[in-house]
Amino acid sequence: MSAALFRIVGWSYLPDFATKQALRVIHQTSSSIFHRPPPDPRTPAYALHYRLTFAAVVLCYLIYNFFEASGSITNNFYELLGVYPNSSDATLKTAFRGFARKYHPDRVGPSGEALFIEVRDAFEALKDPVVRFAYDRFGPDVLKWKECTTMREYLRRGLLSSSLYHVMTGAGLILFSAIGKPSPIVAWRYLLFLCLFASELYLLLAPSPSTLPPGPFVDAATSHATILNVIFPKRIVHQHVLLLHQVFFFLSVALSRVAPVLFPSLMRGDPIMDQQIVRAMAERLGALAKATEWEFSIMLDTELLAIHETPMVTSELSTLPQPHDVLKSDIMHALTMEMEDVVVENKLKSEVGPVKTAWDFAVSQEMRRRVQGWRLQNKLPSPPPETGQAKIHNRARSLSF
Question: What is the DSSP string of 204-271?
Fold first, then answer.
């Protein structure tokens, strides 16, 4: 448990710290040799250098964790005798005799008695090919399974014992996925867990070199060496499985630390992804604006054609000619003058200054004059004088009509 906590703390702080120190040394060395100043920390070049250095640091730390985890596994019976797992019974007997002569309690004293008794009991138990088959897959715990006598019973008991680890690990992954933030790393953790499960199942069910020897009623079972057998030739399947468990642990932790640095575009909140989302939204808004403009132009053409003397039917709206081709010159002149008035009026209303003040004053005076004329014509009393500027604006040329 303490080793697992130490590894979690190491993966939380060590890669970033080692990357910063290594990158500083690399920049100093390159600037002294190539006379090039290091990039600014806020530039893309520095980010690229940091990612490459971080990848190298993580790779070295993964290799260190791999060999450190492999070295923490207890030696098996074959390693204590100095033989290979596929050794014959005669080779094991010869190796045990040499071990007894070297580590017998009469020679090394009471301190070596426990080790000698352990190896002796394992040697006596592994004379049975069935027990040896189970020992290679499930470790020294099979020596305590006195109720098992056949290969099927050993396999059933061993697989049930191994399933507890996978059930607890799967439940932990589901719990972390439920309480954590959504991230693409979750899918990679599940994929890594499936690879671990498939690899362990293959190692446990594949034939081993220490199975029953071929005979008249037993066929020779061919075994395929894995990369773990090549790296650790004197280890058994049980030790390979324990190593896979530790590799899965620090690889799953490494994913949480490595992915945000090496693959920032896959993570939520990345600026590159935000720019892509904004660009896509802008394209959609542009398409909507074009469609709206097209619909508005059709409505405007329909209203303008209503002024024409010749009535148009609804079925002809799709082939309407342009307004300047069908409208008479006097109508176009009136429309042009009105549109100019609208542009001038909007321009005056949107600006602030003496022109705007003069416009408001002129409009208020004209409105007051018209109201007074209407009241005199209808013989109504005049209202009290208004204070402030008038809020009603009419077009300049319309006042003269």
Answer: HHS--TTSPPP-SSSPPPP----HHHHHSTT--HHHHHHHHHHHHHHHHHHHHHHHHHH-GGGSTT-H
The per-residue pLDDT for range 356-397, each reduced to its tens digit, is: 777 778 878 888 888 887 777 776 665 555 544 444 444 444
Q: Give the DSSP letter of residue 104.
A: -
Dist CA 121 CA 105 (whole Å): 15
The Cα-based distances of 164 to 45, 189, 193, 194 in angstroms read 48, 19, 14, 15
d(CA 108, CA 104): 6
pTM tops 0.90, yes or no: no
**In terms of Cα–Cα distance, which of 150, 247, 168 is closest to 200?**
247
The tally of CA atoms less than 13 A away on the side-chain side of residue 75 is 12
Residue 125 to residue 143: CA distance in whole angstroms = 7
Rounded distance between C-alpha atoms, residue 291 and residue 283, angstroms: 12
| Residue 146: DSSP 8-state | T
Q: What sign for the dihedral angle of Cα 213, 218, 219, 224?
A: negative
For residue 180, the 8-state DSSP code is S
- Asked if 248 and 196 touch (Cβ cutoff 8 Å), the reply is yes
Q: How far is CA 146 from CA 140, 142, 154, 253, in A?
A: 12, 8, 10, 39
Give yes or no for a contact between 78 and 84, defined as CB atoms under 8 angstroms apart. yes
The pLDDT tens digits of the residues spanning 184-204 come to: 778 888 899 999 999 999 998
Mean pLDDT value across residues 97-117: 84
By the 10 Å C-beta count (0-12 exposed, 13-18 middle, 19+ buried), 348 is classed as middle
Q: How far is CA 68 from CA 138, 140, 236, in A?
A: 22, 22, 18
Helices 237-262 and 44-71: crossing angle, nearest 10°? Answer: 170
